[in-house]
Write a structure and sequence with these properties.
Mean pLDDT: 96
Helix content: over 70%
Number of strands: 0
CATH class: Mainly Alpha
Strand content: under 5%
Shape: rod-shaped
Largest sheet: none
Radius of gyration: 26 Å
Distance between the termini: 86 Å
Low-confidence stretches: none
Order of helices and strands: HHHHH
Length: 114
């Protein structure tokens, strides 16, 4: 009896990997074993950086809020502490946007918590 290897499924698996590595440089795009390693590494980086991206944006928002608050004579920690005391329900993303693009609205927020 001939050996059954299910070449259809094997080829489909390889095609799936090679399709995902389209655009990679050199052998990473067309040699299966190299492409598979490159793809696995890339997916690991993608998973890690989806979380790192959130950290980076939070840090950016904090810097922008700090700069905006210091223009009005408050530090970031004082500002956030007084926001919590006054129970102002604005998150860092919104506050950073106000500080950057709408300084008069941010000044109103700062004045309301002073």
């Amino acid at each position: 009896m001939p050996r059954s290897v299910n070449a259809v499924a094997s080829r489909a698996r390889r095609k799936k990997v090679l399709k995902q590595t389209k655009g990679y440089f050199g052998r990473r795009k067309n040699v299966f074993t190299v492409a598979k390693n490159a793809l696995e590494k890339g997916l690991v980086y993608a998973y890690r950086d989806r979380r790192q991206n959130k950290r980076n944006f939070r840090a950016l928002w904090i810097q922008r809020i700090n700069a905006g608050a210091r223009e009005h004579g408050m530090s970031y920690s004082e500002f956030m502490g007084s926001l919590k005391k006054k129970d102002v329900q604005l998150n860092r993303k919104v506050l950073a946007d106000l500080a950057m693009n709408h300084p008069e609205a941010f000044k109103a927020v700062v004045d309301s918590v002073k």
